[in-house]
Amino acid sequence: MVNVCSTVVDMVKEELPLHEESLVLSEDVKTGLVLVDIINGFCTVGAGNLAPTDPNEQISRMVKESTRLAKVFCEKKWPVFAFLDTHHPDKPEHPYPPHCLVGTEESNLVPSLKWLENESNVTIRRKECIDGFLGAVEEDGSNVFINWVKSNEIKVILVVGICTDICVFDFVASTLSARNRGFLAPLEDVVVYSRACATFDFPNHLARSIKGALAHPQELMHHIGLCMAKGRGAKVVNEVSLHPVEKL
């Protein structure tokens, strides 16, 4: 089964090559870091209905890389925006089972990022929907994310988190549309860091045993999510460094 899945992924990557770039962070270009749903309910083993049941290499790498970036941004006091998926029990999010309920540890940042709550350059937004851009809309129609971009005069956002093809992609797609409409000036580029993104694994042999379930092979959907983001106009990178030569 593993060999078959690997062959399919290789075939897709050959037909949909990504051609990833690199990003150099510099004081000269105002860059903001956006963390999407790096919370226990999606990343910590056994933490909830949508959390991994076993240690997962892709998710662990995403958390590690995201934490490393967050430390750099906070040391330099560069702007950071963190979305936390948080739901009320009487407002289900179909087709997903109850997850990341308000007041539970599921909806909180993973242990390696918990310290962000005390950083002055960090904006935290709890959202009740997949798309963080829509989840940032207030009752008066204002948008916390748009205000963050404008008030910090951000030209580039670097997006990391989970899930590559769901919450990350939806946020990226909406942000690109808003940028194209002129709602996010001075924002110019949306960059997705592939090594700091991840998605979940639900292979076909498991999905077949559950009525109505949809298979979700991790590596395949991660790649497709990145391709879709690039197709919408995002830049996809597999390396992030500090100007002039410092590696993160």
From TrEMBL:
InterPro entries: Isochorismatase-like_dom, Isochorismatase-like_sf, NIC1
Native source organism of the sequence: Aquilegia coerulea
SUPFAM superfamilies in the record: Isochorismatase-like hydrolases (SSF52499)
Domain of life: Eukaryota
Name of this protein: Isochorismatase-like domain-containing protein
GO biological-process terms attached to the record: pyridine nucleotide salvage
CDD domains: cysteine_hydrolases (cd00431)
A Pfam family annotated for this UniProt entry: Isochorismatase
Record-stated family: Belongs to the isochorismatase family.
Domain Isochorismatase-like per the UniProt entry, residue ranges: 32-205
One MF term in the entry's GO annotations: nicotinamidase activity
